[in-house]
Amino acid sequence: MSGAISSVSRIEIQLLINDKHVISAEFKRHFSPLTIKKIIRRLPISGLISKYNENFIYIRTDLDIGIEKPVSNFKKGNIAFSPSGNFISVFLKDTSTAQKYNMLGNITSDNLGLLLSVGAGDILTFKILNQ
Fold it and tell me: pTM above 0.85?
């Protein structure tokens, strides 16, 4: 087992912006265990960044995962998966959505602000720490 897994319930991950800037985060298995298991098997996952107003950024995936412990209220730094849109979102501020998401985890470093300045053509990669 990799040293990236700090406990059974928390998986340390990194978000890379254009393979230059690193943001630390973690998935918490108790939020959505089946969703997280499927995502972990597919990491690293990369995609072009899209923004929804200033509320969140997201990347599209080809993952087909159903709803699991749905939530629609998020805090700044939360990471969640949209079963209806097949995308992973990072919330940039406290947000309520009409759409239900599977909660994955949250940003653990204090440089979430890097995501505020991303633009068209930027690439976000989710990967397990030390992968």
Answer: yes
Q: How do residues 96-110 score in pLDDT, each as one tens digit? A: 999 999 999 999 999
Q: Does 5 reside within a domain?
A: no
4 part of a folded domain: no
In Å, how far are 17, 54, 62 from 123, measured between CA atoms? 6, 17, 16
**In sequence order, which residues have a C-beta less than 8 Å from that of residue 128 and are 6 or more positions away?**
2, 4, 11, 12, 13, 14, 40, 43, 44
pLDDT beneath 50: ranges in the chain: 1-5
Burial of 27 (0-12, 13-18, 19+ CB in 10 A): buried
**CATH number of the domain that residue 60 is part of:** 2.40.100.20
Across 47-71, b (16+ Cβ under 10 Å) vs e yields: bebbbeeebbbbbebebebeebeee
Domain assignment present for 73 = yes
Does the residue 3 lie in any domain? no
